[in-house]
C-alpha cells in the first residue's frame, strides 16, 4: 500500500502548492469588510432592541434583526480567526467608515427598517464580491476559495 501512495504523490504536478499568505494582498479590504460587519451587527442589534421595547406588535422583526446581528457578529469573528491563522494582522485602532455607515437611521417604521436592512445586506454583499474578484484576478495560480 505504501508504494501506491508514493506513486500518487509522485504524479502530482510540481506547481501544486498551498499559499497560506494569499490573504495579505487584500488585508485593508478585509479590515473594512470585518469592521463593516461588526458595525452593521450593532445596527441590527439596535433595530432589534427598538422592536423589543416598543409598544408595536412586531416580534417577528425583533427576532429577524437579532438573528442578523448574531450572524454578522459570528461571520466577523470567523474572518478574524481565518486571517489570524494565516499570519494576517488586522488593525482596528483606526476607525474605518463608509458614507453609508455614517448614516444611522432609527425606527422610522417597519417598511423603512426592512429597506434599511436590505441596503445593509447589499453593501456587505458588494464588499464580499469585490474582495472575491480581486483575489481571483491577483492570485490566478494559487487562489484559495475558502477566503470568502
TrEMBL record:
<dbReference type="InterPro" id="IPR009078">
    <property type="entry name" value="Ferritin-like_SF"/>
</dbReference>
<dbReference type="InterPro" id="IPR012347">
    <property type="entry name" value="Ferritin-like"/>
</dbReference>
<protein>
    <recommendedName>
        <fullName>Ferritin/DPS domain-containing protein</fullName>
    </recommendedName>
</protein>
<dbReference type="GO" id="GO:0008199">
    <property type="term" value="F:ferric iron binding"/>
</dbReference>
<feature type="domain" description="Ferritin/DPS">
    <location>
        <begin position="41"/>
        <end position="124"/>
    </location>
</feature>
<dbReference type="Pfam" id="PF00210">
    <property type="entry name" value="Ferritin"/>
</dbReference>
<dbReference type="InterPro" id="IPR008331">
    <property type="entry name" value="Ferritin_DPS_dom"/>
</dbReference>
